[in-house]
Amino acid sequence: VLENQDLQESIKPQKVEFHSLNFNNTLRWLPGRASKAQDTVYFVQYKVYGQSTWQNKGDCWGIHNHFCDLTNETSNVQEPYYGRVKAASAGVFSDWNLSCRFTPWRETMIGPPSVNMVHRNKSIILKLQAPRSPYKRKRGSNIPMTSYYDLLYQVFIINNLLDEKHSTLVYEGADKIIKIKDLRPGVSYCIMAKTYVPMLDRSSAYSSRQCTVL
After folding, report:
1. Of 178, 167, 172, 176, which Cα lies nearest the Cα of 152?
2. How far is CA 19 from the centre of its chain?
3. Which of 27-36, 39-48, 125-134 has the lowest mean pLDDT?
4. Which family is this protein grouped under (predicted)?
5. How many CA atoms lie within 13 A of 15 on its CB side?
6. pTM over 0.85
7. What element of type H or E holds 99?
């Protein structure tokens, strides 16, 4: 029995956490200290905070992966959820390990906007588009993150005389089309943008750099 208890404890999944980008919500965990990848399988359940019954996630029942996509199961973004995982190896099951409470609206990371850049004369014109969630409208298009948050865009410019550390914030606001004027001909300029959520005081990562020579 002791051996079994030791095995139970040593295969128990560790660090069970939700990771979320634009409401793509994935439960991730680390294997227990004695888990051999080929012969340990995992079982995932989830529930809404306050409910008594756990739901099995069929696609993540007896899997070898260390992650489980719960995007569809956590689609009410204001609702708090829990996930939990247990492991089995050599006929022995570990105890469940529980995630922290996860509320998608509060905790998802928002991605950067997509940036389309054209230049005219001494100006650069940017078209920004908010990232989209995985959830669909009735017509079938994915709902943009602007439907869930008041988002601002932050636009940064780097000219080639400066290095990356010297990016300058040239715009912050909600406009999707932005014109940056009075730039110097013959100089290469690079643009990066972030989305910013004032209510949560949270910024996205930078978009990839787009560069042009005027």
Report:
1. 172
2. 6
3. 27-36
4. Belongs to the type II cytokine receptor family.
5. 9
6. yes
7. none
